[in-house]
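User: My advisor asked me to double-check a structure prediction for GIY-YIG nuclease family protein before group meeting. I don't want to rely on an old file, so could you generate it fresh from this sequence?
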Amino acid sequence: MWNYNYFTYILTNLTKNVLYIGVTNDLKRRLYEHKEDKSNGFTAKYHCHYLIHYERFTDIHQAIDREKEIKKWRREKKDALVATQNPEWKFLNEEVNEGI
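Assistant: Sure, here is a fresh prediction for GIY-YIG nuclease family protein from the sequence you gave:
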């Protein structure tokens, strides 16, 4: 059986007042794309370049379902999710770049 990795992730901006939820099969590459504003979308407009939460899945459908679930939540619930694994809201980009 193949071992695939998919990630649901949450990004924020420098002041941590905007959240973006996404899904990818290559978190390191996707963070680079967000940082370089490779798309002219939400993350570029609001400068969401900082990873504060991620979850790993082996099934793409589970990752997409989780992304959709989190996107429906109110901001308070999203904040609480981040705080469960990252109570200080540290930027985790370097952790990913070093290899997760």
